[in-house]
Amino acid sequence: MSKKILITLTKKEKETIDKKLVKPLEKKGYEVIVVYENAALSEEKIIEKIKDVDGYIVGLEKVTEKVLNSASNLKVVCKFGVGTDNIDKKSAAEKNVRVTNCPGLNSNSVAELVLGIIFCLSRDITFLDNKMKDDLWISSMGTEVTGKKLGIIGLGNIGKCLVKIIQGLNMDVMVYDLFKDEEFAEKYNLEYVELEKIIKESDFISLHIPINKATRDLISENELKAMKKNAFLINTARGGVVNEEALLKAIEDKEIAGAALDAFINEPPVGSALVKHERVIALPHIGAATYEATERIAQYSMQNVVNVIEGKEPLSEVK
User: Fold this and answer.
1) Are residues 49 and 76 in the same domain?
2) What is the pTM of this model?
3) Is 221 a catalytic residue?
């Protein structure tokens, strides 16, 4: 009897996933159950699909204790990406289910998105484009990025990739991270500083941290009030690291110039006043959504899941 693997990802990934993940798994003799939706599946729908599968490659769906309890044959869950905050790792460990991820493979895609966002914010590109589409010929003054202060909160794979690709912009880069890579900092002329300094002095703040007890609401009312009036906040990390109510109030009160968000507490953020605000660039969690990153992650996630099912060690495990 062939082993079963469940895959739940978004419709935009279908072409690459069918070619680079589903077909190779089927060639290896696996039965593949794949579900493509625009938004994360509900707990009930996951339970319906996961009952007798051996491996699960998951996107943004929440792999809860209830989901894990319904999967009697499950041996491994692989996050199609890096952050495993949507997986109940404690319950997985209790059921001897290995939790794996795909670190570093989407870093360039996310960093490039941040670079694009910086230019959009500095020159009002999306705002003015929307006005043009409404037949309004409205201009505005922007700001050059060269020489501005960029504060990076979280210098992991994505943060480091961002540092590398902005080298030609001559930005003054400050970084905050609990774990300091002094060799990298010296090579790229970075300054490790306290979080408070980044908040107070940066023209652009870019978040690259996981969501956990320590980082939830890391940027909230006090931090937003401490930012420069002409500063921009960029979150391509996880919903919840920024307090969305406080951010909306800060933008409405002109405490900061604007924000760009690629992650929200609730996804999709239906009815969100923050999403609809003209000083906010809102994106549907597309940081890793490039053909190149998707192909790299597809191959890596396949190896993670196959390795565990076949009794080998995964390429990357999260505990």
Assistant:
1) yes
2) 0.93
3) no
Is the residue at 314 inside a domain?
A: no
- Residue 279 among the catalytic residues: no
Catalytic residue among 15, 191, 194, 267: 267
Question: First and final CA of the chain: distance in angstroms?
Answer: 30
Closest CA to 110 of 60, 162, 149: 162
Cα–Cα distance, 315 to 303 (Å, whole number)? 7
13 is catalytic: no
d(CA 269, CA 257): 22
Give residue 50's domain range. Answer: 4-105+290-309
187-212 b/e (C-beta count within 10 Å ≥ 16 → b): eeebeeeeeeebbebbbbbbbbbebe
The enclosing domain of 190 has a CATH number of 3.40.50.720
Closest CA to 263 of 224, 236, 290, 243: 236
Residue 40 confidence class, pLDDT cut points 50, 70, 90:
very high
Which residue type does 308 have?
A: V
Same domain, 36 and 159: no
Residues 175 and 153: their CA atoms lie apart, in Å, by 6
Query: Are the C-beta atoms of 265 and 242 separated by less than 8 Å?
Result: no
In a domain, 229, yes or no: yes
Count structural domains, the chain: 2
**Whole-angstrom distance, CA of residue 293 vs CA of residue 103:** 11
Count of alpha carbons within 13 angstroms of residue 34, beta-carbon side: 19
Q: What is the CA radius of gyration of the chain?
A: 21
pLDDT digits 0-9 by tens, 207-254: 999 999 999 999 999 999 999 999 999 999 999 999 999 999 999 999
The DSSP symbol for 60 reads S
Q: How many helices (H) and strands (E) does the chain have?
A: 14, 12
Residue 63 has what DSSP assignment?
Answer: B
